[in-house]
Amino acid sequence: MIAARRNLEKIDQALAARDKFLVTQDVLINPLRKLAGMYDYIFLDTAPNATTPTIAAYKSADWFILSATPDPFAIAGLNDALTDIQGAQRYGNPNLRLLGVILCCVDSRTILASSLTEYVEKLFSDGSKSLKFDTLISRSTVVPQSQKLGKTIFQTAPNHKVTKQYRKLSKEIEARIAEFEEPVTTSTIKSAVSTKRGKK
Predict the structure, then answer these.
(1) Which Pfam families does the annotation name (predicted)?
(2) How does pLDDT run across 158-196, given as a tens digit for each residue?
(3) What confidence tens digit (pLDDT) does each residue in 57-87 have?
(4) Which burial class, exposed, middle or buried, applies to 119 when counting CB atoms under 10 A from its CB (0-12, 13-18, 19+)?
(5) Which of 5-9, 52-56, 107-111, 187-191 is predicted least confidently?
(6) CA distances from 184 to 36, 117, 175, 177, 191 (A)
(7) Ramachandran sector of residue 135 (left: φ over 0; alpha: ψ -120 to 50; beta: rest)
(8) What pLDDT was estimated at residue 196?
(9) Which of 33, 71, 100, 183 has fewest C-beta within 10 Å?
(10) Angle at 67 between CA 10 and CA 72, to 5 degrees
(11) Is the distance from CB of 64 to CB of 195 less than 8 angstroms?
């Protein structure tokens, strides 16, 4: 895991200074190819807005995973994400596919969360099956607490409910990939963009 830094805000200027002919949207393609076979999966966690790193991730990934919280503004932002996917498919990455939608910070006790979860289920359904992942990630303080310590919840709270949900989700993601294509081997790299849609 390579954590993001505030320096990424200056990446446009840094890349331009390095090579003025460099196509910044393509900077991740060759590095990811070089990593093929070294990892089973590479996750590129991007911002919801179309920054240079985000667009570069769109153009280099195989799969697109949407992540949203069950609130009206975040759910509305999912439509923008679909537009981003279509744009990436038209301009350089025709093989990019939406793998699924993850709902995080879910408080199942509220009527709003339940209704929006149902809405997402229908929004991403083709009539027979929805692309929303079955696993919901509950709202909990365990995640920000782990972030504060600079560790994962698997290290700080291995038996917590949310940790178990993430384990279940990882299995669901692997099953979804296997369903969409041939099983992944150690010599094949599958990179996925995970885009968060938070409150605006």
Answers:
(1) AAA_31 (PF13614)
(2) 999 999 999 999 999 999 999 887 644 444 455 666 555
(3) 889 999 999 998 888 888 888 888 888 888 8
(4) middle
(5) 187-191
(6) 12, 30, 11, 8, 12
(7) beta
(8) 57
(9) 183
(10) 105
(11) yes
Most confident option among 1-5, 18-22, 60-64, 178-182: 60-64
Structure tokens at 104: 């995080």
52 within 8 A of 80, measured Cβ to Cβ: no
Classify residue 90 as exposed, middle or buried by CB count within 10 Å of its CB (0-12, 13-18, 19+). Answer: exposed
Q: Report the side by side order of strands in the sheet with 190-197.
A: 41-46, 190-197, 63-68, 97-103
Q: Which residue has the tokens 């081997």?
A: 185
Question: What is the domain partition of the chain in residue ranges?
Answer: 6-197
Tokens read off for 132: 């929303």
| Separation of alpha carbons 39 and 85, rounded Å | 24
DSSP string, the chain: -----GGGGGHHHHHHHH-TT--GGGTTHHHHHHTBTTBSEEEEEE-SS--HHHHHHHHH-SEEEEEE-SSHHHHHHHHHHHHHHHHHHHTT-TT-EEEEEEE-SB-TTSHHHHHHHHHHHHHTB-SS-BSB-S--PBP-THHHHHHHHTS-HHHH-TTSHHHHHHHHHHHHHHHHHHHHSSPP-TT--EEEEEEEE---
